[in-house]
Amino acid sequence: MLKVAWSESYAHPLPEGHRFPMEKYSLLPEQLLYEGTLSPSNFFSPELINEKWMLNTHTCGYFARLSALQLSRAEVRAIGFPLSKGLVEREKSIMSGSVQAAVHALSHGIGMNIAGGTHHAFSDRGEGFCLLNDLAITANYLLENQLAKRVLIVDLDVHQGNGTAEIFRNRRDVFTLSIHGEKNYPYRKEKSHLDIGVPDGTVDLEYLMILRQSLPMVVDAFEPDFMIYQSGVDVLASDKLGRLSLSQSGLKERDKTVLALAKNNGIPVMCCMGGGYSRQIRDIVEGHAQVFRLAQELYF
Asked: Which residues form the Histone deacetylase domain (predicted)?
């Protein structure tokens, strides 16, 4: 059975007019239940993991100041969210959800988180709507507990996974692949193990060709025994921040390419959602929903 992490805290309210669409975290599970893709039994509410697993990724000083709501104004401004206890607890819940979804994937092939993909969080700071990095925390958890030996992080959000790249800069047991808008945020890129920047306006055919050439080569060379997939939908043409031109059908083919490759190679995969900023919330929800449909179709 597909297990999906979700908590009511994921839809933590923000001040009116804030541009980050928190409502997608409640609308997405509602849509998946309504259409019958998931049932209530598919969902689990993550239990908070021990903070030592977060400290395996983030510095003690940053984590302590974040938990105590003692970040500087500049640090809060870089994150982009007004800092609050509820927001920090939300982030910790998301970290736990990704870790527990990954553990489920070890025995069922795939596990998913309704949220996550917080790839702009560095070891010592947050950035770009990301306080902590669930991709990195999950990878480190698997490696430290000897549940995996080589973890591949496939980041297909339109923005480079700069925080993840910094955290694993000198690691050989984690491979970071980021396919992103070459001229989009962050304007100062970090160095992933493989970065592929694509130009503004890239359409389905061009994007899928790049993915289908690069991902199998990485898998063959690195031979991962676990994959973490950041499946942001801000690559859509409708996205107001993305600047690429993928259609919903192109997005589905992107996700199918990744999940089918993982399944065909026997690589367990944890899938988290990443960004999405289309003007119409229905475009965001539909973009995210189809990866859950694919998971059911391919794995169960």
From this structure: 18-280
pLDDT score for 15: 74
Per residue, the 3-state secondary structure of 190-214, as one string, reads CCCCEEEEECCCCCHHHHHHHHHHH
Among 198, 208, 210, which Cα is nearest to 247's? Answer: 208
pLDDT higher than 70, residue 17: no
Q: Does the pLDDT value for residue 14 go beyond 90?
A: no
pTM for this entry: 0.97
List of residues 6+ apart from 23 with CB closer than 8 A: 11, 281
Q: Which residues does residue 227 pair with via DSSP β-bridges, in sequence order?
A: 152, 269
Domain boundaries 4-299, corresponding CATH code? 3.40.800.20
Tens of pLDDT, residues 243-252: 999 999 999 9
Number of Cβ atoms within 10 Å of the Cβ of 250: 21
| Residue 55: band (very low, low, confident or very high) from pLDDT cuts 50, 70, 90 | very high
Residue with tokens 């800069």: 169
Distance (Å, rounded) from C-alpha 49 to C-alpha 219? Answer: 30
Where are the domains positioned within the chain? 4-299
DSSP the chain: ---EE--GGGG----TT-SS-TTHHHHHHHHHHHTTS--GGGEEPPPPPPHHHHHTTS-HHHHHHHHTT---HHHHHHH-S---HHHHHHHHHHHHHHHHHHHHHHHHSEEEESS---TT--SS--BTTBSS-HHHHHHHHHHHTTS-S-EEEEE-SSS--HHHHHHTTT-SSEEEEEEEETTSSPSS----SEEEEE-TT--HHHHHHHHHHHHHHHHHHH--SEEEEE--STTBTTBTTT---B-HHHHHHHHHHHHHHHHHTT--EEEE-----BSSHHHHHHHHHHHHHHHHHHH-
The pair of three-digit structure tokens given for residue 259, joined into one six-digit string = 């999940």
